[in-house]
Design a protein that fits this description.
Helix content: over 70%
Number of strands: 0
Number of helices: 2
Distance between the termini: 41 Å
Oligomer: single chain
Order of helices and strands: HH
Largest sheet: none
């Protein structure tokens, strides 16, 4: 006979989801800002354009994960 106690949920709590969304928001903003600064510096000729492309991909990936976390 099974125990009548509830099983622990595998879903994260509301607080954990909120913390994850906050951290992803900060990371996405920082990566976006770094991408813009790198773009400006690459147009001036100080940095490589490849670094901008890498940061743009990272920013897009973070935004995609954030969108999934928010459920929109």
């Amino acid at each position: 006979m099974s125990s009548p106690a509830r099983r622990p949920s595998s879903n994260p709590s509301r607080r954990q989801r909120e913390t994850r969304a906050y951290r992803l928001t900060l990371a996405t903003g920082a990566a976006g800002l770094a991408a813009v600064v790198t773009l400006v510096l690459s147009l001036v000729g100080v940095m490589s354009f490849g670094i901008f492309l890498l940061l743009a991909v990272v920013t897009a990936a973070l935004a995609f994960v954030l969108k999934g976390t928010l459920g929109r």
